[in-house]
Structures are given as structure tokens and as C-alpha cells.
Amino acid sequence: MHCTTLRAALITLGGLVLAATLVHGRTFAQNAPAAAAAPQTDYSKVQEISTDLGHGLYVITGAGGNTTLEVGTDGLIVVDAQFAPVYLKLKAKIAELSSKPVKYLVNTHYHGDHTGGNADFAHDGAVIVAQVNVVKRMQSPPPGANGQPGRPAPAEALPTKTYTDRMKLSVGGQTAQLIHLADAHTDGDTIVYFPTANVLSTGDVVSSQSYPNIDVAVGGNIDGMIRGCDEVLKLINDQTKVVPGHGHVTDKAGVRTYRTMLVTARRLIAKEIADGKTEDQTVADMPLAELDKQWAVSGGPFVQRFPRLVYRSLKGS
Ligand SMILES: [Zn+2]
Predict the structure, then answer these.
(1) Which domains does the chain have, with CATH numbers?
(2) Across the beta sheet with 161-163, what order do the strands follow?
(3) In this predicted model, what pLDDT tens digit does every residue of 77-110 receive, in sequence order?
(4) How far is the CA of 272 from the centre of ligand 1 (A)?
(5) Which residue of 1, 137, 169, 222 shows the fewest CB atoms closer than 10 Å?
(6) Is the pTM of this model over 0.85?
């Protein structure tokens, strides 16, 4: 039986409040900031919504990062697991789209809004797949933004199939190509390309509607984010459907626009550093005010943090 009463513990991350929730008697710590704008998500109100991308590919949105589903004739590949408390809803939505079992769950990186459902997927028979650094980060996550220690994920939530640079997964008639992007959003980022449907899932290296998070504490870096976008742009064409970690499905033009924002932000923050400004002085100067008009409109926890994360990237701290 699944526990229907969810006990939420609050974790505050630099003004952002997230929920770590007990499901099936296991505690899932959300070590990393999520893109959820609400101070505390009421998971009972979350709806899982699917969009058909063609050729057996779907994007499913619920609570946490976007989930991508690839349907093969004998099994399914799922990319990203959302937050733990919505697992049963996500499972039900996947079952609506295919009766086949989930063979692989790919984590694009270690953050809790992409790995929260790991243990439940594994319990139901999926093999958890990720770049090798994800295991390390889930076992010993960095402290939260407010300095509180990170909480290690339970053993059953850890990826058991790992790779270093590239890996291919197959389910009947369909493949998924996993490509590692170094030191971008984290040190363990994976993008997943589905050639049959010409769909690319980028995890949090690409964001379509708001500033991204950059997890500087684990090697994430603005320059790596820009390089990551370059690799994405090399890989895709004008017809590719791009599923970002958060936000609506976008395309090559959307990735170009996003990359331009990253490059502009980097230049503006680098100028503040060259002028001898501290991080707080840089934030007070509001060098990104023009970019904010497009990229800060949706609010969210990273709007205030983004200039700080770029600053820290460039300072190498
Ligand atoms: Zn993330």
C-alpha cells in the first residue's frame, strides 16, 4: 500500500522553501533548489499533463522538472522523475500513454526535482541511468544555499547504470542517445537525443522561460552553460523539438535566444568584476535589468540569484 498521508518537512534555501516528503516510509531530501515558484507546493493539487511530440515521444509536466517519455514496442524510456510525492500521478499518466513497463529512467542531473521519484521507479522495475557524477552528488550532496547540510539520497534511489561521456539506450524500435555536457548546470549533466522523433531533452542546461539555476557548488559554470548550448545547437536542426528542464517545449531558435541571454549576462557581470565590484555591489547595480524584462518575468527562485551565480562562476568560487 502506498502511504497517502504525506509528511512534509520544510527546507529553506535562501528564501526558497521546498518540501521534503515522506513517501513509503522513505525520506527524500530535495537538496537542490527547484523551479517551483510556490513557497510550498500542495502536491495533492498537482496534475500531470502530457503533450504528444510524435513518433512515440511525450513530454509530461507535473511537479518538478519536465519528464520526457519514449515509447518502444517492449518498454519505455523516461527522462527525469519529478518530485517524489507525485510519483503515483506520474506513473498513472505514463500508464495512460502506454501499457509497457518503464525499462530505463534517465536522470539529467542529481537535483531533487528531477530525481525525487527515483526510488519508486526502481521499486517498480526501472533501471536508473545517469552520468557517473550524479551518483556521487546524490550520495554526498553539497550544503543548501543557507548552509544547512545536504541530505544523502537513500541507496535505492541511486542510479545503477552509469556512463562517462556517451551512452545509447534502446527499447523496441526506439533509441535514446545520452550525451554528457561538462560543468554546465552541474558536473553531471546529461542531454538525451531521441533520433526517431527528433526530440532533445536538455535537463536544466536549457531553460525556455526564465533564468536558469547554475549549481556552482558542484562545478556548474556560466561558461559551461554557454558551451553546453553550443553543443546542443550543433546537434539539432530547425525541426528538433527541445524539451528544457523547466518551461515550455522550444526549438533551435529558442535555444539560440537563450544562449544570447547567457552570453550577454556573462559580459555584463564580467564588467562589474573588472570594475572591482563585490557580489553585493554587482547585484545592487542591476546590470541585468534589460534581460530581466524577458527572463525574470515569470518570477521564481533564481531571478534574484542568477547574477550571483554568474558572478561566482566567473570568480571561480
Ligand atoms: Zn537542476
Answers:
(1) 19-262 (3.60.15.10)
(2) 49-54, 57-61, 67-71, 76-79, 102-106, 127-131, 161-163
(3) 999 999 999 999 999 999 999 999 999 999 999 9
(4) 26
(5) 1
(6) yes
